[in-house]
Amino acid sequence: PWPRPRPDAEHLRLNALVSLALFLASVLTMTLTGMTGVYGEGPSAWVCLLLLAGATLPLAWRFTHPWQSLLVVALCFGLAGSLGVHEFMVLQITLFLAMYSEGAWDGDRRRAAWVRVAVIIAMFVWLLVSLFRLSTDPESLDTFPAEATGWSLSPLVAFMLVQLLTNVIFFAAAYWFGDRAWRAAQDREALEYLARQLSAQQRRGERQAVALERVRIARELHDAVAHHVSLIGVQAGAARLALGTRPSEGTDATHEALTHIEEESRSAVEDMHAILHTLREGATDALTSTTLQDTVSDATGSLGLHRLPELAVESGAAGVPTTFTEVGEPAAVPPLVSLNLYRVAQEALTNVRRHAGPGTAADIRVRHGEGWVELEVSNARPPRRLGRPRSTASGLGLVGMRERVEADGGHFEAGPLSAGGWVVRARTPVRRDAR
């Protein structure tokens, strides 16, 4: 059972004022009706006031105690009609409101149905008894014409049918509108619950989007800056060795190494500027619904698979001879996929320089297939180990590469080769009509 929320204190006070206004209105209409002298003498004034109060004032509790309110109102309504209280309009309104409220506010739906059915049966029994007394009272019969006028039904029968039809419509409407109000309140509660759920999901989605953006930024910083910084370290080491072993002959080598350091430093700064540009444009992108692929295309659109030959040359200049091979018919690759594969190759070469040691060689291969593109970066076993300690691996490089490839719906693998060395392989699906 669904417990319908009760109205707030303001609505309860307003409903109490409405019930008091109905009581005053019933007293006024009873007084005016009595002044007409049409209906004869009624019960004493205190009995009339007591019955009118019992048929109107309980409506103040129709939200919190609907079935008790209906029973009291129905009982006073029947007594007022049986005793001849001269009030015929307001009491019908209060009975309708009481029955409607029972259907609209009682949380026990079985009780709501049975109480209303019991009241309807009692009212129809009372109506039939009243009609029987009318049909057997000679004084009442004298008020109707003796013969039918224009119709086959007698005036008395027509009057009885009108009374029955009016009460059927009255009680059916009260019953139906009460149930409809209950179902409408249920639907509103369900919609409000769904709205709260959607709002919570939206907040969770926003938090997840922020977390994913942080991961993406960290990945970009790691892949871009670490690559250039590793090259700077290699070139700085070469310059130091040139000055230390050949002070008189190492000028040219030192100059070349310092030139590479300058170029890689400038490239690192440019990549960081591109990432910062993406961050600054983030708020505008959120407002204009710019996609991540559009943002990447604007900020780092110059990076992609077409830059892999240059990456191989840079790697060779840093002391790791690198070859580049492209197999198959090149197909159009989406900018985001192309950038991610470039970053994978860049990070793989960085790992070669960090961990493989001097004397190793690397190979970059790009294979194009029907609906896919595959990148493979491998390095052979170095010819000898020079006692140079390996760099401490953080593990973020492999994690970042895997995240990039899997974000594009691809497959990533990395591991040692049987003949020695290491291989990184990433295969990503692409469409032939990709742009």
Please give a structural write-up.
The structure is a single chain. This protein has 435 residues and is of the alpha+beta class. It contains 13 helices and five strands. It has a five-stranded mixed beta sheet, covered by helices on one side. The longest helix has 91 residues.
Task: Sum up the structure in keywords.
8% strand; 435 residues; 5 strands; alpha+beta
Global mean pLDDT: 80
Largest sheet properties? 5 strands, mixed
Using only CA atoms, what is the Rg? 45 Å
Secondary-structure element order, as H and E? HHHHHHHHHHHEHEEHEE
| End-to-end gap | 57 Å
Side by side, the strands of the main sheet go 1-2-3-5-4
Brief synopsis:
This protein has 435 residues and is an alpha+beta fold. It is 66% helix and 8% strand. A hairpin with a 5-residue loop joins strand 4 and strand 5 (422-429).
SSE layout:
Layout: H1 9-36, H2 45-56, H3 66-83, H4 90-105, H5 109-135, H6 138-141, H7 155-245, H8 251-280, H9 282-288, H10 292-300, H11 308-317, E1 322-327, H12 335-356, E2 362-369, E3 372-379, H13 396-407, E4 411-416, E5 422-429
Parallel strand pairs: 1-2
Antiparallel strand pairs: 2-3, 3-5, 4-5
Helix pairs in contact: 1-2, 2-3, 3-4, 3-5, 4-7, 5-7, 7-8, 7-12, 8-10, 12-13
